[in-house]
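To whoever picks this up:

The parser on our side crashed when reading a file containing two proteins. I've narrowed it down to the boundary between the first structure block and the second sequence. Both blocks are reproduced below exactly, byte for byte. First block:
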Amino acid sequence: MSAKILIVEDEPAIQELLVFNVTQAGFVALRASDAEEAWQQIRDYAPDLILLDWMLPSTSGVVLAKQLRSEARTKDVPIIMLTARGDERDKVLGLESGADDYITKPFSPRELMARIRAVMRRHIPTLSEDKVASGGLELSPTSHRVTAKGLTIELGPTEFRLLHFFMTHAERVYSRTQLLDQVWGTQVFVEERTVDVHIRRLRASLEASGLDGLIQTVRGSGYRFSTNS
């Protein structure tokens, strides 16, 4: 599932360049020219990361970043600020507004994509292409393969995403609602009991490979991936 990146940039030429580079890197590009359009895209598509220009009409990028951090739905969405301002005080102001990183124009596409991937690795490990190893399992997002002791475990696409999320968020308890938001996405409307069905399938596949007890039920709270029995 490709990450969605919202590009908030009012200069058409720069917006097109950013859309091109983001799309070429395999991400889904969303676009907005001002704060109002940005909020509409956020409501409709729930982006995974926001590229935010400092200088926007009506509402500045700094003000918008502060607003995003004050809203429950967007407070954890990574923000990279784009600006022509290179002064250290401006950089500090951008970061204090809630931005996770700051890139000064002009920048190379290679630098931009490196910054995007670095921020995503920190904030959204399930969108990283890095291999994950835990509890005797090794999961590769690029090959879509899970192995245990060198043997491949066959998983459906939803069970794969579910396991990837669990392995990158080990020892934490997640409710069914949280798992639906994180694994299925906020734009997909399915019943909470759907989570139970896929948990059972995932457990069955792991247990068939001799891996018991990794997916734990926490009564009244949800589920947890743990290597501690």
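<<boundary where parser fails>>
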Amino acid sequence: MSHDERLPRNRTYLMCPPEHFTVEYAINPWMDTKVAVDAGRALTQWEMLRTTLTGLGHQVHVLDARPGLPDMVYSANGAFSVDGTVYGARFKYPQRAAEAAAHQAFYTSSFAWRYVEPQQVNEGEGDFAYLPGAYGGLVLAGYGFRTDPAAHAEAQEVLGRPVISLKLVDPAFYHLDTALAALDDRHVTYYPDAFSPASQRVLAQLFPDALLADREDAEAFGLNLVSDGRHVILNTEATGMARKVSAAGYLPMPVDLSELKRGGGSVKCAVAELRA
């Protein structure tokens, strides 16, 4: 990865406060129902993440939390938007199913978006990433644990952008956004062993200059990051990842999200990007 000037680009995001956040069921290896969540601390940490983003000049819309949906704080999973078109989510687990309607209501309340309801199971930006500067606009899509691979073809028809299917093989990294992140419009970072050997070859072909992470980075949720092209917001535990992005010319901005990690998510899970 070359070290040319890393320039930030103003972004628009959607977040949902963890007002009802608990770990009352386990649908990924990180969730432990026996350890209580500190609700006040979770809200404080979330607010710090939000103010970090707004402090960088980004716009953050806030989706109202709904009772009975403790995972709504992971707003990245609710939809995936490209060029003003929104491909809605359809969650694998019934515990999260109603989140999709809350996100749909947000998009359909505004004339700015064309919302398309999905037929296939997919979990929004949890399993989709977009790189507008790569190959004219490229969607990377994960499958293996949550999103049905048939959703990748459906997303391509909805969005009119090429979609590259990548197979996730490690249950610890059950969503694409735990194993891969866009650092800017053209560059990615990822943990190779989270993917099948064939998907590793695909990524190496598409992104020969990618920033490669190791298992320690991935287990610290260091790939579950948000970047504006210059500033890389990632959780404080991911010290090794912070050093790597810094060496690559980006500016790491650590935020403590230890409570949200109890539910199997970190910075990126809590932040959906709105691409008009």
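After patching the parser it read the second block fine. The CA atoms of residues 13 and 273 lie 4 Å apart. The first strand starts at residue 12 and ends at 15.
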